Amino acid sequence: MGQKTHPVGFRLGITKGWDSRWYAPKKEYHLILHEDLKIKNYIKERYKVAGISKIEIDRIVDKLKLRINAARPAIIIGRKGQEVELLKKTIEKIAPGKEVTINVNEVKVPELDAQLIAEDIALQIERRVSHRRAMKRAIDNALKAGAKGVKVQVKGRIGGAELARREWFLVGRMPLQTLRADIDYGFATAYTKYGILSVKVWIYHGDKLKKKKEEILKKIEEDLAKAGQEG
């Protein structure tokens, strides 16, 4: 039987990194974890229109660094940076005693961001757009933007059906068991009249460790040639 594994968690420390980077003693760990979740949920809810892809948190002693990746960063920054300052004050209340720094980065190609695509499909489904149409359009846009493979899945009471079912489309390659594969994963929820639908998106960007492998082989060849000359 096939076992389903989270594409990001499966590659942590190999081709993917952690969204939150900090260390805490055992007794404090759960407090900081919930603090991080509160911050992320607050930003996601407040700036829904900004198209937030990822929120990264770094904690060093009494400093808290936030990195927000968004499709429309101007909404978060605001006029003359006023909105960022308000956000900074709110986060300082959620995480008291921390010096907060916020960096807002732009997602240059939203068509290649799995999280943004999943949220866009979920929004279209909520607006009663055909799920198949939304899925196919998202796949076409991603492939035009340069993706090597795209998989989109919608699950639940699709179209108000009595029984929940799963529908998915796959175009191109999707090597889910290959650790060197750079696969972006996104998940969103569509709240419809008939119930909740889950939307999942996988985007394959190519292999990440390919260059390193070539460099290692080249080095081995050079070492062997050097050893042959010395011999």
Walk me through what this model shows.
- Strands 1-2-3-4 form a four-stranded mixed β-sheet.
- Helix 4 packs antiparallel against helix 5.
- The protein is globular.
- The chain is built from six helices and eight strands; from the N terminus they run βαββααβααββββα.
- It is α/β, with parallel strands linked by helices and 231 residues long.
- It is 38% helix and 29% strand.
- Helix 1 links the parallel strand 1 and strand 2.
What percent of the residues sit in helical stretches (DSSP H or I)?
25-40%
Whole-number mean pLDDT: 90
| Poorly predicted runs | none
Number of helices: 6
Strand content: 25-35%
Spatial sequence of strands, sheet with the most strands: 1-2-3-4
Most strands sheet: 4 strands, mixed
C-alpha termini separation: 53 Å
Structural class: alpha/beta
Instruction: Assign an overall shape.
Output: globular
The H/E string reads EHEEHHEHHEEEEH
Radius of gyration: 22 Å
Tally of DSSP β-strands: 8
Protein topology:
Elements lengths: L19 E2 L4 H21 L5 E9 L2 E8 L2 H5 L4 H13 L4 E8 L7 H13 L4 H15 L3 E8 L8 E8 L8 E12 L2 E13 L2 H21 L1
Parallel strand pairs: 1-2, 3-4
Antiparallel strand pairs: 2-3, 5-6, 5-8, 7-8
Compact description:
The protein has 231 residues and is of the alpha/beta class.
